[in-house]
Amino acid sequence: MTIETTTQESRSAYPPPVDALLPKARKLTAELGEVPSRNRLMTELRIGAPKARAILAELTAPAPFTDTVSANRLHLVPSSSDPQTQRRRSRPEHRNGWCFSHGAG
């Protein structure tokens, strides 16, 4: 007589915390190519609705802002062929009642 053993995931009597379930949820998201629904999370991870909502909130939360992101931001610079830019450059600059013309000494 042979005894077949199967490998089963050891389950605890205590439910896993949300932090422990996040890697599995992220893996599922990568496999699906989209954020899974609350019901799909409940089925796949064998959890209840409150934990599924918490995991869903974590998966859909925006990435935290870092200073390195702002350093790499692009901004628009008007081209020299833009007619509005050319008009602004041709007009003298006025400040506090004084006129500062380009090239005037």
What does this structure look like?
There is one protein chain. The protein has 105 residues and is mostly helical. The chain has a domain at 15-62. Helices cover 46% and strands 6% of the residues. It has five helices and two strands; from the N terminus they run H-H-H-H-H-E-E. It has helices at 18-32, 38-45, 49-60, 67-71, 83-90, and strands at residues 93-95, 98-100. A two-stranded antiparallel ribbon has the order 1-2. Strand 1 and strand 2 (98-100) form a beta hairpin. Helix 2 packs across helix 3. The protein is elongated. The model has no long low-confidence stretch (mean pLDDT 77).
Question: What is the molecular shape?
Answer: elongated
* Element string (H = helix, E = strand): HHHHHEE
Main beta-sheet strand count, sense and barrel state: 2 strands, antiparallel
Structural class: mainly alpha
- What's the Cα radius of gyration? 30 Å
Please mark out the parts with pLDDT under 50 across 5 or more consecutive residues, or reply none. none
Strand order of the largest sheet: 1-2
- How many E strands? 2
Tell me, rounded to a whole number, the average pLDDT: 77
Q: What proportion of the residues is helical, as a percent range?
A: 40-55%
Strand content: 5-15%
Q: N-to-C terminal Cα separation, in Å?
A: 107 Å
Helix segment tally: 5
